[in-house]
Write a structure and sequence with these properties.
The chain is mostly helical. Helices cover about 90% and strands about 0% of the residues. It has six helices and no strands.
């Protein structure tokens, strides 16, 4: 009986041990799966941020090469680039802390900021061409045509040319300020409206002549 009792006790211990081993293996498997998932997530985020850094590096070179064309907006572009570099540093801090959720959020912020930076670098030189080139030329042409028809005695006062020139000149000053501040969509819309009004004035003066 004593031997039987010891065997039964040993059997129970083996059963419990097998259960503990099985439970331990399951936990180990789940831990391995979690670690593998985290590793995949970290690798994916690294790939994404490296791609962003490559794009950003190219944009920095483009901005430097276009410094003259970017004109008064260049300090803003520099500030934007510094902000993006700060986001990259934040990303590394969150990755070091293994907070991949926060790192992912910072990565998305960096991506959006880089896209906006790219839009500014590409758009601003073209906006300046219009604001400092084409529109002043239109203003000069309207003024020249107006002086010409006045000297010929043609009545064009109903077109309110001096008033329109004054208003659009002030609008142009505001547009130049908005371009320097990086408001590319607002500036583009306003420049287009000014161009249309000036081109229409040219046609109307020529019609009266």
């Amino acid at each position: 009986l004593l031997a039987y009792g010891k065997l039964k006790e040993a059997d129970d211990l083996f059963t419990k041990l097998e259960s503990l081993i099985e439970e331990s293996m399951e936990k180990t498997y789940l831990l391995d799966q979690k670690l593998e998932t985290l590793l995949e997530e970290e690798t994916q985020q690294r790939l994404q941020i490296n791609e962003q850094k490559n794009v950003f590096r190219d944009l920095k070179r483009q901005a430097k090469a276009s410094e003259i064309q970017l004109g008064e907006s260049y300090p803003l572009i520099q500030s934007d680039m510094q902000d993006i570099e700060h986001l990259f540093s934040n990303f590394e801090e969150w990755m070091y802390a293994s907070n991949f959720q926060k790192a992912a959020e910072v990565s998305e912020q960096a991506k959006a900021s880089i896209e906006l930076l790219e839009a500014k670098i590409n758009a601003i030189p073209k906006l300046y061409e219009r604001a400092k080139g084409y529109i002043p030329e239109l203003l000069d042409e309207v003024s020249r045509l107006y002086q010409g028809v006045k000297q010929e005695g043609v009545f064009v006062e109903h077109l309110e040319v001096p008033r329109n020139i004054g208003i659009l000149s002030e609008v142009l000053k505001e547009d130049l300020l908005h371009i320097a501040q990086g408001h590319i969509d607002k500036s583009a819309e306003s420049l287009t409206e000014s161009e249309k009004r000036l081109e229409q004035l040219v046609l109307e003066i020529q019609k009266e002549a």
